[in-house]
Amino acid sequence: MFSHCCILLLLSVFSLTPLSLALPFEQRGFWDFGIDGDGGGLTTMMMRDVEEGSAVEDPAPPEFPVCPFGCHCQLKVVQCSDLGLTEVPRNIPSDTKLLDLQNNRITELKENDFKGLSNLYALSLVNNKISKVHPRAFVPMRHLQKLYFSRNLLTAIPKNLPASLVELRIHENHIKKVAEGTFSSLGTMNCIEMGGNPLQNSGFEPGAFKGLKLNYLRISEAKLTGIPKDLPESLHELHLDHNEIQAIELEDLSRYKQLHRLGLGYNHIRMIENGSLSYLPNLRELHLENNRLSRIPKGLPDMKYLQVVYLHSNNISRINVDDFCPRNFGVKRSFYNGISLFGNPVQYWEVQPATFRCVNDRMSIHFGNYKK
Fold first, then answer.
1. For the domain 63-170, what is the CATH code?
2. Hey, CA dihedral for 359, 362, 365, 369, is it positive or negative?
3. Which of 61, 76, 155, 291 is at a distance of 20 to 30 A from 176, taking alpha carbons?
4. C-alpha closest to that of 362 among 335, 329, 343
């Protein structure tokens, strides 16, 4: 407790100080804070804190994943396209979800190229020069769902594809054979795109698709002369356009009862054997354009759910009144939304109006003018 004399002394000192000298503090440099009565109090205080362990230390700089040279890394996406790479780059962050390596010059996938990338969801290798893939190259990728391998130099589908794979696009390679057990490591897939390969019917070995449940398959622009045997029975969409198929025989479609969409356009089909389409009770869309058919395929009126039929650019010269619609209205469950017949040598004015009695709208019928 201060004594009375001390208080009086302090009051007298303050009373003698002119108001004009009581100026606000002005900092001229950092060390101004360290100049106090005991010769560097701030410095002494910091040294004491360090000794006692209570000083505020500078935080360590955050650790950022290393991004491969020339690539762009952001939000678990690593983009290394169009860099002229000849091999898979190193130091790819382990948390990468999407790896883009398209438009490079990679020639080979080695065993450890994707080591540590267990979180990878999508891998794009489109437009490289890959001709060799190590059998264990994809083993680390336990969660890979999308693999884009188009426009490379592969002669066979890589082995040991990840069991998690949902989508495989491998068109425009040099694949001539699909060996037995190629997809044995896979269970259920949504899409396989393998068009643009020199595949013949003999190139599909028995058991190539054994055990695979597949929704969508496209083998276009190949060298098929018929519908391949032993494709997955679970298919909802099958596209075989731009091939050399000449006929549809009775048993060709017998195992594909789940098909909703069938693409056979741009082939050389002259004949569809009676009863062939009866194996497709759930078909919604049928592509037969740009073939050599001379008549409407038999069996269309009995397809309860068929809604779209492409028949343009064939050699059809006559259309009968019952070619599309059943005599009994109760048989047809879904009316047609589209029937294309242009590019055929048929005189549309000779077609009876009742021919299209099970079509939703007259605008759904496309005749056009035939020019030889």
1. 3.80.10.10
2. positive
3. 291
4. 335
